[in-house]
Design a protein that fits this description.
The mean pLDDT is about 85. The protein is about 45% helix and about 20% strand. The strands form 3 sheets. Strands 2-1-3-4-5 form a 5-stranded parallel beta sheet, with helices on both faces. It has a 4-stranded antiparallel beta sheet with strand order 6-7-8-9, with helices on one face. It has a 3-stranded antiparallel beta sheet with strand order 10-12-11. The chain folds into 2 domains: about 120 residues, Rossmann fold (3-Layer(aba) Sandwich), CATH 3.40.50; about 90 residues, Arc Repressor Mutant, subunit A. Strand 7 and strand 8 form a beta hairpin. It has about 230 residues and is an alpha/beta fold.
Length: about 230
């Protein structure tokens, strides 16, 4: 990660875009702005940002298509901004490579915390990649932390970076229940899980890829990873 991370802010509302930009610059980030789908893809290619703050509803083509295109060329952490509360929309965004999402209206402090957490995750992933961390095996599920690869019954499963981190956190202690607060702290870097469905949405996306039976819900507590018999 560069000393001063570069962020790409994509938001078609000029007032919101500028407010986000001003706050993020005040937090010490370098910020590039875009206001529509084609402009976002072009800015990503030109500036190579360290993270993208991406609105879902954009002119030209929407944020889902932006995310799909930029992740196909040079993967980058993406934090989506959405006014939609439909879980299907959220899961589509996560499915094309978004790492996290914030629902409008949002607090600037929360947005900045999410951004910093995603950037920390990138640094942590790079450290793990060179650490020789052993593979984790839970039944026919294999999690290779060094290479950041996952397979089920020998077939590779493609996870987003954040889905991988969530799975790795659960796989460190198979069968043990990890609380929502612990997972939010370890994976996202912030402990206040109240009022957000971010963790639940990512668990649902993870289940769709590795098999729902492998992730057990303990209502009111959290989640556990288990071998499928």
């Amino acid at each position: 990660m560069t000393e001063t991370p570069t962020l790409l802010v994509v938001e078609d509302d000029a007032t919101i875009n500028q407010a986000l930009t001003d706050r993020l610059r005040a937090e010490g980030f370098t910020v590039v702005q875009a206001y529509d789908g084609p402009g976002a893809v072009a800015a990503h290619e030109t500036h190579g940002p360290d993270l993208v703050v991406l609105d879902v509803m954009l002119p030209g083509f929407d944020g889902i298509e932006v995310c799909r295109r930029i992740q196909a060329t040079r993967p980058v952490p993406v934090l989506m901004l959405t006014a939609r509360v439909d879980e299907t929309d959220v899961l589509v965004g996560l499915g094309v490579g978004a790492d996290d999402y914030v629902t409008k209206p949002f607090r600037m402090r929360e947005l900045v915390a999410r951004i910093r957490a995603l950037l920390r995750r990138v640094d942590r992933a790079r450290e793990l990649a060179g650490s020789g961390t052993p593979r984790l095996e839970i039944g026919d599920l294999t999690v290779d932390q060094a290479q950041r690869r996952v397979s089920v019954a020998g077939a590779e499963v493609h996870l987003t970076p954040l889905e991988f981190d969530l799975l790795a956190a659960l796989a460190e202690a198979p069968g043990a229940v990890r609380t929502r607060e612990d997972l939010m702290q370890e994976v996202w870097g912030w402990s206040d899980a109240h009022g957000t469905r971010t963790l639940d949405s990512h668990v649902k996306a993870l289940r769709a890829k590795i098999g729902a039976a492998r992730v057990r819900t303990v209502h009111g507590v959290g989640y556990a990873i288990e071998a499928v018999r």
